[in-house]
Amino acid sequence: MRPPDNDKKDDAMLRPILLATAAALALTSAAPALAADHDAAAVHARTLVLDSHVDVPADLGVGAHEAAVDSDGQVDLPKLERGGVDAAVLAVFVAQGPRTPEGYAQARKDADAKLTAIRAIAERHPDRAVLALKADDVEAAAEAGKRAIVVGFLNAYPFGEDVWPATRACRRSSTIRATCRTPNSTPSPPRAGSYRSSPSVPIWSG
Known about the structure:
By secondary structure, this protein is of the alpha/beta class. The chain has six helices and five strands; from the N terminus they run ααβαβαβαβαβ. The model is unreliable at about 190-200 (pLDDT under 50).
């Protein structure tokens, strides 16, 4: 018979091993549940998913680029639905051009065409899309199983030298706006030595 002291020592040595084994078994049995909680598809499904910037073609809403067509473009309703994307910010963007009355007029015409086409998505497909002007609209659309279409103004060139018309227009029709996208964006204060008539000269202090 072993002395009692040896039994106590053996018990003391075995206890950590038994506890570690029990913990390992518990983690092994819980692994499937933990994996399910962190599964990318499951997280995606329970998250409000928003694409914060989508470039749109000049002929958005026409022919192959109609919103209901699974097109060659970046985003359309079939892609948003298939990908589980709840909302998308579609950009009203016009590249910087000549800072002249004629240049501003053409830019405004191009911007108006894109804005009309973006707004038309919800108008043509009210069963699938909603024009979202505030955060609550995005959440409501997701709860209804629809896609939230958010208008984003990018570059205020279409509004000429005065930012206030751009601000008023954005308040009426968009949620996201960035008036200056590139160093030569309009409107902006001139940098020393720059020429405001040239679209290629940085005038946002570089």
